[in-house]
Amino acid sequence: MNIIGRLTRDAEVRNLPNEKQVVNFSIATNDNYRNKQGERIEQTTYFECAYWISPKVADFLTKGTLVELSGRAYTSAWLGKDGEPHAGLNFHTSQIKVHGGGKRTENISTESNKTAKKEISNSNSNSNSNSNSNSNSKSIDSEKDDDLPF
Fold first, then answer.
1. pLDDT given for residue 100 in this prediction
2. How many beta carbons lie within 10 A of that of residue 108, not counting itself?
3. Residue 120: which of 141, 139, 135 has the closest Cα?
């Protein structure tokens, strides 16, 4: 599953007792649609996200940054201190692509559960770029669209 949204707060790195580290952050995604009456409805959904692969990515995840995440969504439910039930949407992130909020674009992906691949390119640099670098992170790979039936 892929989601695109903006960070609602700076990312935090938590150190766990088993010597593992997790990057926690939250994003807001926006959606809009028209209801039966033709009125435009805008809806914001919030996700609490966790990234277990590399804590170094936290430096790039600051409030307001536009990110594209790959991973899996799940729900959680709990009772608050006041005894009231609460629920939330969580996202176990396996890949992060930073689209905005700085002069760099960073892709972090996994080839297996414990390996990470990091590519950082300067989006303002027009020289020394090869065919694999992506200076415009919002572009869509046209080769992938060629196989679509419509």
1. 79
2. 21
3. 135
